[in-house]
Design brief:
The chain contains seven helices and 43 strands. By secondary structure, the chain is mostly beta strands. The chain has a 22-stranded antiparallel β-barrel. It has a five-stranded mixed sheet with strand order 5-10-11-8-9. The radius of gyration is 26 Å and the shape is globular. The two termini are about 35 Å apart.
Length: about 750
């Protein structure tokens, strides 16, 4: 037990988010492609958290949510807005969050944009994960103004590798992976094939019928084929197929009976940490076999590279399609039966993406070097909701067409000083085509946005192992369409938003590679921020839309330390602080919260900023934190290696992750509470076998990954009126019988399991 106590005592001494463990007691620096070329992580003026395949496997990081818990400054929702795999992924980097609309940071697979959910992507095929922080629009393109997450898949090599692995854990959690890769012709032709079956029974029950919720099932097939006909040419073809069959989402609604503040405003509110619920309440029987997710996804890509010596060309192109139906109980209560299926819906989606990029590079060994490229991206998504009451809301075809030119120029200004300039010009056309819901003349609505995204950096090497850098970069996020055909035309578009990121950082390697320390401080000036607000359809029904709320500033700090204490013990510590504060914005609901009770709701609280300075100030969001983003994150780990016999090596590790509360909305009232996760793992390795036992979430922390401001349709309240204090003040204090509730995904419980792998 002494090694265990030593690990726990020393766990606050270091962090390994940027370093992979090559073998027992050693650290290996990762080579990344965050600037479109292969570079050592410690040599680039960027803040990047990178994890290699061995690190991902050992830490049990089998999806991006688990990667986020070990990456300060990066947050990710375990489930989307309505539940399991029902929508797109929503990463948050450096406090730059949103609730609806496109994500503020984008996910790429092998450098190609991947807009759909990646939570069922098998991480057994992932060679490396790079979380690139700060605006990356200059090189990665649209919707990366907060950062980018690049997943690099495994390729064939000259060495044969055949691995069969399995996972068995509580709650019916089973997974089997089989991967084979190697040469078909030595040095010329390589292959990789992979197959996976995954099943999860769910951790929670539905209180109405006792059925399990949160179940998941996936089947995946992946392959790549690589040709190297000469030293100059490389051609690689990649393919992936996945099918998901998930049950009802493990989401719950904290109903209006818990509301404890602003009980006399239009819809009431809840202040503080949401309660811990042990079950969900959904009308599953109404759906039959249409509850949950059924999804088929296809991913195809090709890379062609030519190295002509003093210059090189690289072409990367891909196709992605996801066809899904998602049945879900919108209100998460038994009220749906009484309303005849109004809140029981089937979301039908068909998304297709095509992207292509051509890059020209000069010789990277020259004092002055650069790259230039052209880029094309196209997205089409048909979306509708079929309701079990017989009605349908067709949101038509969402269209995105993006073209861009970009380049970078880098020069060694001295033996130790390097300067770099990057620039991208892009045109982004977004539209919605909905002939089923609009008159012929208005079938297609669209808008075009143009942007110029620069990045400038200087880095200075104090020694070969110590780097300091300064950088300034502008990120741009395209505009957004609120496509519901029943909306007022004035709410159709939200304008594009942008942010300038100013950063100073340092990267340091000490003690012959046994200690690595990285740190960065930054300031982000964020304008025209897109966030959600309430609106009304032409039918009178309430709806949430995306609008531009104003301006936000982020002041942040990141620190990472990895240390090899002895040949047997390594440890790490990481910390991020992101003070993402809204500096200028108005919201009518905030105005209600700050209006004296004697004035009721008050006509001055309008959806648009009022001319009356009193109500403008009352509705100000200045000083509020951005929602759905923790202010502080901490990670720590300790690993102790030991020898069992000449043929068996063992290790024991502890991982700790902390995230401060996430607010559900800009009002900073309801929040998730603090998340603290402790994982433990004991593993044994031989030349061919790997075996481990693990405990995830040792202390059974139930903090949800997100909290959503919602409505309790089951428990309406009558509206109330007040005696008017002025002739104009005749509105009700509470003007809606549909009172606020708060929805959130039920967090993963403590789980015990084992893994085994055989390599031959």
């Amino acid at each position: 037990m002494k090694p265990v106590r030593f690990i726990v005592a020393a766990i606050v001494a270091a962090s390994g988010v940027a370093i992979a463990q090559e073998s027992a007691g050693t650290l290996q620096e990762i080579v990344v492609t965050s600037r479109k070329v292969e570079e050592k992580l410690q040599d680039i003026p960027l803040s990047v958290a990178a994890f290699g395949a061995a690190e991902l496997e050992e830490r049990g990081m089998d999806d991006l949510f688990k990667v986020s818990t070990s990456t300060p400054g990066f947050s990710f929702e375990k489930l989307n807005r309505f539940g399991v795999q029902g929508g797109g992924s929503r990463p948050v980097i450096r406090g730059q969050s949103n609730i609806l609309g496109e994500a503020n940071a984008s996910i790429f697979i092998d450098g190609l944009l991947y807009s759909d959910s990646v939570l069922s992507l098998p991480f057994d095929i992932i060679e490396r994960v790079e979380v690139i922080k700060g605006p990356q629009a200059a090189l990665f393109g649209r919707a990366t103004f907060a950062g980018a997450i690049n997943l690099i898949t495994k390729k064939g090599t000259n060495d044969f590798e055949n691995t069969v692995s399995a996972k068995l854990a509580e709650y019916g959690d089973y997974e089997v992976n089989a991967l084979s890769r190697g040469p078909l012709v030595d040095d010329k032709v390589f292959y990789m094939v992979h197959a996976r079956y995954y099943e999860f029974g769910g951790m929670y029950k539905n209180s109405l019928d006792g059925q399990s919720v949160g179940s998941e099932q996936s089947v995946n097939l992946n392959a790549s084929l690589e040709f190297r006909p000469s030293d100059e040419w490389m051609i690689r073809l990649n393919a992936g197929f996945g099918t998901d069959d998930d049950g009802a989402a493990a989401v719950a609604l904290q109903d209006r009976t818990y509301n404890n503040c602003y009980l006399n405003v239009a819809r009431q509110y809840y202040c503080g940490e949401v309660v811990t619920l042990e079950s969900t309440e959904q009308n599953l029987d109404l759906f039959g076999d249409r509850i949950g997710l059924e999804k088929d996804a296809i991913r195809l890509s090709a890379q062609v590279e030519y190295d002509g010596g003093p210059w090189s060309l690289a072409w990367n192109t891909g196709y992605f399609n996801a066809d899904s139906t998602y049945g879900y109980d919108v209100d998460v209560t038994s009220n749906s039966t009484a309303l005849g299926g109004t809140f029981n819906r089937i979301a039908v989606s068909d998304r297709t993406e095509i992207s292509s990029e051509l890059i020209f590079r000069t010789d990277e060994t020259q004092r002055i070097r650069g790259l230039g490229g052209v880029y094309m991206y196209q997205s089409r998504r048909d979306f509708r909701e079929d309701r079990l009451n017989g009605s349908t809301v067709n949101e038509g075809e969402q269209r995105i067409d993006n073209i861009a030119v970009f380049g970078a120029l880098e020069a060694d200004l001295s033996d130790r000083l390097t300067g770099r300039v990057e620039l991208r010009y892009a045109e982004d056309k977004i539209g919605n085509n909905n002939p089923a819901a609009r008159p012929t003349a208005l079938t297609l609505i669209e808008n075009t946005f143009t942007s110029t995204s620069p990045r400038v950096s200087l880095d200075y090497k104090l020694t070969d192992d110590n780097l300091v850098y300064i950088a300034a970069a502008k990120g741009n996020k395209p505009g957004y369409i609120n496509s519901n055909p029943l909306l007022d035309p004035s709410l159709l578009f939200a304008d594009e938003e942008s942010a300038w990121n100013y950063e100073i950082g340092t990267k340091n390697t000490f003690r012959d590679g046994r200690t690595i320390l990285n740190a960065a401080v930054y300031y982000i000036d964020w304008t025209n921020q897109q966030l959600t607000t309430g609106a009304t359809l032409s039918t009178g029904a309430p709806v949430t839309v995306v609008v531009n709320i104003g301006e936000t500033e982020v002041t942040g700090f990141e620190f990472e330390l990895s240390n090899q204490f002895t040949d047997s013990f390594t440890g790490g510590f990481g910390f991020s602080y992101n003070d993402a504060e809204i500096t200028s914005a108005y919201d009518a609901e905030q105005c209600q919260f700050n209006t004296p009770a004697s004035e009721g709701r008050a006509v001055g609280c309008t959806t648009a900023p009022p001319t009356n300075l009193t109500f403008l100030n009352r509705g100000s969001l200045a000083g509020k934190q951005t929602p759905n983003s923790p202010k502080n994150q901490i990670t720590a780990f300790g690993r102790y290696d030991f020898n069992v016999s000449d043929a068996v090596d063992g290790y024991f590790r502890v991982d700790y992750a902390y995230a401060s509360k996430k607010f559900s909305q800009v009002f900073n009232l309801a929040h998730s509470g603090e998340q603290q996760l402790v994982n433990m793992k004991l593993g044994f390795d031989t030349a061919n076998w790997k075996f481990s036992v693990f405990v995830d979430n040792l202390f059974d922390n139930r903090t949800p990954s997100t909290v959503i401001r919602f409505v309790d349709f089951k428990n309406p309240l009558p509206t109330t009126t007040v005696v008017p204090t002025t002739p104009a003040d005749t509105q009700s204090t509470r003007t809606s019988s549909s009172v606020r509730g708060f929805q959130y995904p039920l967090a993963d419980k403590r789980q015990v399991g084992m893994t085994v792998a055989y390599k031959f």
